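Quick one, tokens below. Sequence please?
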């Protein structure tokens, strides 16, 4: 090989290696920074724990709905704050955003609306948290660093499901505990596809509509889970998966009411 060509190839290879190292450094630094910011947000909740909206000076949404006192400060800091999602004994313990004007606003932004590779968990703008309908869809990144919704993919293992059957999703208006009823690989369908689209299900006005969605979830889930009945409130957690083009991994849970 010509020495000049060899030297040129070595320079190119060196640039690529340095570029990869730089990218990974930025990537993991960004994830670490985002994780610290989430922990900082959680401290505001702990400070308000146990208070009510009236006791903490009053707080209400744009429609006048009373906001839980423990979330008052976060809401005042950013009115797009919608609640908190946690799956115990996992890394999933994050604030959740809802931007009505731009659904994906927080896909690459943090709580302070600054650029973030990890972004924030965010709610589909067709979902309703004031007067919840049948289903609330929450999206989040599948970060290679293991943060955000990365742990959702672990539900592919039945033993993991058994050990992590419950999800806590508290909105700014009310608290909620949910039991997982399904977890599965799927994808965003092309426009000419006749396949069912889980990401378009928000409200079931009939038992048939509800059962169609639940049957889809059950058929996709590779193991037995708890059931769901018409009238149950659901949350659908969705993240990217790389098993196919436009792949997604989805976890669905129903709200359980303590007697």
């Amino acid at each position: 090989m010509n020495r000049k060509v060899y030297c040129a190839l070595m320079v190119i290879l060196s640039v690529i290696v340095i570029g990869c190292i730089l990218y990974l450094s930025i990537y993991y630094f960004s994830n670490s920074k985002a994780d610290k910011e989430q922990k900082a947000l959680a401290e505001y909740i702990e400070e308000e724990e146990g208070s009510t909206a009236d006791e903490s000076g009053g707080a209400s949404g744009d429609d006048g709905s009373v906001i839980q006192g423990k979330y008052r400060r976060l809401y005042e800091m950013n009115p797009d704050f919608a609640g908190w999602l946690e799956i115990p004994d996992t890394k999933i313990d994050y604030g959740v955003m809802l931007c009505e004007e731009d659904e994906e606003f927080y896909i690459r932004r943090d709580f302070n609306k600054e650029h973030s590779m990890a972004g924030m968990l965010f709610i589909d703008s067709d979902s309703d948290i004031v007067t919840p309908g049948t289903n609330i869809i929450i999206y989040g990144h599948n970060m290679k660093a293991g943060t955000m919704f990365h742990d959702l993919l672990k539900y592919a293992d039945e033993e993991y499901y058994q050990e992590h059957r419950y999800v806590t999703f508290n909105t700014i208006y009310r608290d909620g505990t949910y039991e997982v009823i399904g977890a599965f690989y799927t994808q965003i369908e092309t426009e000419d596809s006749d396949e069912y689209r889980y990401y378009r299900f928000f409200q079931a006005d009939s038992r048939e509509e509800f059962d169609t969605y639940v049957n889809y979830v059950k058929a996709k889930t590779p193991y037995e889970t708890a059931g769901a009945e018409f009238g149950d409130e659901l949350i659908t957690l969705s993240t990217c998966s790389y098993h196919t083009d436009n792949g997604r991994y989805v976890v669905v849970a129903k709200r359980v009411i303590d007697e």
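The helical segments are 3-48, 72-77, 158-163, 207-220. The radius of gyration is 21 Å.
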